[in-house]
Structure formats: structure tokens, C-alpha cells
Amino acid sequence: MKKPRIKAGRGRALKWLAFGLLCALPLYGSLRFWWVWEAPWTLTLYGVASLLTFALYWHDKRRARVAGWRVPENLLHLGELLGGWPGALLAQQKFRHKTRKQSFQLVFWAIVLLHQLFWVERLVLPLGG
Q1: Residue 86 and which of 14, 66, 74, 108 are 20 to 30 A apart at CA?
Q2: Number of Cβ atoms within 10 Å of the Cβ of 72
Q3: Cα–Cα distance measured from residue 129 to residue 124, given in angstroms and rounded to the nearest whole number
Q4: Quick check: is 9 in a domain?
Q5: How many domains does the chain have?
Q6: How far, rounded to the nearest angstrom, does the alpha carbon of residue 69 sit from its chain's CA centroid?
């Protein structure tokens, strides 16, 4: 029995909402850095790192299908750590790649959390203290 189309659409909308919420703080912080300190490098870093990391995931998934040389997981995580986690998250969903390996997902979400904590420390905590 097929799932009703409404539920599939709702699930997709929730994924996009979650993605938007995860990106909100880094986007706001990057734009603030650009506006206040005239430093567009953070926004540029997230964009370039996300594109490169997305491409690494694509390449790894492609190579996994043909049993070729694979991209080392440490390299995927390095791309995420350098700011490419939004691209990695999109690639995971688009290619259905690295979504079931729990050890990989644990490191991935720790990197996302690290980025969120960085921006909380930079943007939110100074307001209280």
C-alpha cells in the first residue's frame, strides 16, 4: 500500500524546515560578520566548503556504485568541519548516502553541533554578558 502523497510532502517540508533552522544561525552570523566587520570570508567559506563537500559526497556515491576508489570518511568530515556541513546534509538526502552508518552520522551531527555552538558563543552569549 502506497503512502498518501500529503504525508510525503509534509515530510519533505519538515526536512526543509529543519535544514533552514540549522542554517539560520550560521547564516545570520556570517551576514553579521560581513556587515559589522566587513568580513565576507565566513559566508564565502560556508558556500565554497558546502559546494566542495557536496561534490565529494557525489563522487563517493558514484564510486561506491561502481566499486571504485572511495573518498575517505575523514575527508568528508574535514569538508563538513571546514563549513561544508550544509552541503553534506543536502548531499546525504539527495544521494541517500552515509545516512544509515551510525558512526558516520554521530561524527557528522557532532560537527553540526560544534558549528551551532560556535555561533551561539559568538552571537548570543555576548548579549547576556
Answers
A1: 66
A2: 11
A3: 9
A4: no
A5: 1
A6: 24
